[in-house]
Amino acid sequence: MPQEAIRTTRRVAGLSIAIAILVLGIKYVAYALTGSAALYSDALESVVNVVAAAVAFWALEVSHRPADKDHPFGHHKAEYFSAVVEGVLIVVAALLILREAWGAFQAPRSLEAPLAGIAVNSVATLINLVWALYLIRLGRERRSPAFDADGRHLMADVVTSVGVVAGLGVATAVGWLWLDPLLAALVALNILREGWKVVVSSLSGLMDQAMDPADEEKAKAIISSHAEGAIEVHDLKTRLAGRATFIEFHMVVPELMSVGDAHDICDRIEAALETEFEDATVQIHVEPEKEIKQTGVPVV
């Protein structure tokens, strides 16, 4: 990845921490104004956001380290650990929220200055919405599990915050005190669901998940159109490691083709794949004609 892109990634990760702290402060003010269990749950989730942003910053720093003796394939998978940690923190926060909700349900309490609390919380929600959309887009562009997980978590936070604000509005209007702890419990269940999705997605990456089927078909088309002189390509395997893509396959060439000519074909294919897939590593095993399988990628 170019140095400018790395610097941008670091700035965004650092800004995520600052925004998470700001939003946490705003949401705590909303809770302090009202004493609402639902707003408490919203603020507690923001504590997770702060910790998750800090962990993501660390993971991104590690993932950009160059390959070394102990890690010859690089450090790309560090981002998956960040996403797993975030998922676990979400689960912990959900359990703490459920405990608070149960206490509030057993001893319902009236809300103080609910309209002021709702207004303050709405400001935090708007900040989270803008930043979540940006992180999700950046995560897709950079193929960053850390940014994508952080953005999706914030978007879940936005959805739950909107639900909390709407519910508190209803509770204030009709005087249903039991609605406040119920909303807190619903927030907890929703973020449990999001935490599970983040963990499952990250574990798939740690288990060397293959490329998206559409991208794999694109890779096959590129190989086919740039392998002129070869007979066939088979045993194509792909895996993702954060933003890095690993592509390997066997290429069958005529028995009498020179090493130099076979190497030229490999260079063409590698260059084309690396142009299409940023941070791609391509490995090609050249085989003689007797190894043909006629079940692989046809050469056009």
CATH superfamily of the largest domain: Cation efflux protein transmembrane domain
Q: DSSP strand (E) fraction? A: 5-15%
Q: Rough shape?
A: elongated
Helix content: 55-70%
Walk across the major sheet and give the strand order: 3-2-1-4
Structural class: alpha+beta
**Total individual domains:** 2
Stated plainly, the CATH topology of the largest domain is called Alpha-lytic protease prodomain-like
What's the CATH class of the largest domain, please?
Mainly Alpha
What profile does the largest beta sheet have? 4 strands, mixed
* Distance, first to last CA: 32 Å
* Radius of gyration, CA atoms, in whole angstroms: 25 Å
Question: What does this protein structure show overall?
Answer:
The protein is of the alpha+beta class. The chain has 2 domains: 3-206, Cation efflux protein transmembrane domain (Alpha-lytic protease prodomain-like, Up-down Bundle), CATH 1.20.1510; 213-298, Alpha-Beta Plaits (2-Layer Sandwich). Helices cover 69% and strands 10% of the residues. It has 8 helices and 4 strands; from the N terminus they run H-H-H-H-H-H-H-E-E-H-E-E. The protein has a 4-stranded mixed β-sheet, with helices on one face. The two termini are 32 Å apart. The mean pLDDT is 80.
